[in-house]
Write a structure and sequence with these properties.
By secondary structure, the protein is of the alpha/beta class. The chain has one domain: Spore Coat Polysaccharide Biosynthesis Protein SpsA, Chain A (Alpha-Beta Complex), CATH 3.90.550.10. The chain has 11 helices and 9 strands. Strands 1, 2, 3, 4, 5, 6, 7, 8 and 9 form a 9-stranded mixed β-sheet that branches. Strand 2, helix 2 and strand 3 form a beta-alpha-beta unit. Helix 1 packs parallel to helix 2 and helix 9 runs antiparallel to helix 10. The two termini are 23 Å apart.
Length: 286
């Protein structure tokens, strides 16, 4: 099978761990089908340790790595807006600066685009591991499962994010046609997927884990409070106003998210781990 070229898009800011950044970037260099264009957006000034990792990567991958440095930190959405426009290829693989892509991730996603040319977004399951313990990821049971086909993706999107952002590969032209990323805190990806699905762009999720996602105790704490709830409900209001969801679905989402944001952190973590994640080894890749 002949595969098209693709770009890698990553953003990094000063709070990231240098070791995690190196590991994340190496996981993309080690893909079975390598990229010829890696765009790294530095969202504001970085630490000397992070800069050292980037300098190391530039020495090793001079012809492929394109480092864009922003003077101030504006947030992930703004950084990705700039990064999308800087990518040379129409297919773009998103990658977070602290996660790990499995070696065949991009090859499997590219195959979907070759076999299904009407698809605009391809993602996969992710398996979560805690903090700096990727060696334990293979025994992790916390898997975020997302639906495979577009019709089921649309149904899922009415309640929850239908794609795992660090696993997604998309068509640049389609993302730009949908308005590109929004500079919205926490939910810039969900906003973009909603825009695209409402406009008729189609998605697909490979039914296996292709990315190991680093989480921490703060992961659940950030998903609480009035600000987070407001950002969520702004998105659901947008979907309601465009007839993507009904008013009753909007009200149901409001109640669920209000209760979640008000819950103690231990309860929110329990719900995420036992209800919103699958504990099923058959979804793991070898």
């Amino acid at each position: 099978m002949d595969f098209p070229d693709y770009s890698v898009l990553m953003s990094v800011y000063h709070k990231e761990n240098p070791s995690s950044l190196r590991q994340a970037m190496n996981s993309m260099w080690q893909q079975t089908i390598p990229s010829n264009d890696f765009v790294l957006v530095c969202d504001g000034p970085l630490t000397p340790e992070l800069d050292k990792v980037i300098e190391e990567m530039l020495r090793l991958h001079t012809d492929v790595l394109n480092v864009i440095r922003l003077e101030t930190n504006h947030g992930l959405g703004h950084a990705l807006q700039i990064g999308v426009n800087a990518c040379k290829n129409d297919l773009i693989a998103r990658m977070d600066s602290d996660d790990i892509s499995l070696p065949e991730r991009c090859e499997k996603e590219l195959a979907v685009f070759v076999e299904q040319p009407d698809i605009s977004l391809v993602g996969s399951f992710i398996t979560e591991f805690l903090d700096n313990e990727p060696e334990n990821a293979s025994s992790s049971k916390a898997i975020r499962v997302v639906p495979e086909r577009n019709n089921d993706i649309i149904k899922f999107a009415k309640k929850r994010n239908p794609f795992n952002h660090p696993s997604v590969m998309f068509r640049k032209n389609d993302v730009l046609a949908a308005g590109n990323y929004s500079n919205v805190r926490y939910m810039q990806d969900y906003y973009l997927w909603a825009h695209m699905l409402i406009q008729g762009f189609k998605g697909y999720n490979i039914q296996e884990t292709l990315v190991l996602m680093r989480t921490s105790k703060d992961f659940f704490k950030r998903r609480s409070g009035k600000q987070y709830r407001k950002i969520q409900m702004d998105l659901f209001r947008y979907m309601r106003d465009r007839k993507f969801i009904t008013n009753s679905q909007y009200i149901s989402s409001y109640i669920i998210r209000t209760l979640s944001s008000m819950s103690p952190n231990w309860l929110r973590q329990f719900l995420f781990r036992t209800i919103l994640r699958k504990n099923n080894e058959r979804h793991m890749t070898s």
